[in-house]
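User: Hey, quick favor. My workstation is busy. Could you predict this chain's structure for me?
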Amino acid sequence: MPKRTAKELRVYAEENRLLAAHRRAEAALYENTAREVDAGIDYETDEFLRLNDAVIEAENRLPKRFQED
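Assistant: No problem, here it is.
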């Protein structure tokens, strides 16, 4: 395997940072959803909407090759 350049390593690190941020946003949304379902809430609360928006924003920051179609 060829040695990576400094630029390639920076790109790789940034991609990993963005992926981690997206996964954290998704995890927060899923955890909130589970809590709300357990509490009997069956509608989109303000918190759900806020967390959902955070997931969308995090996904929009991902490189195109990581975004869902």
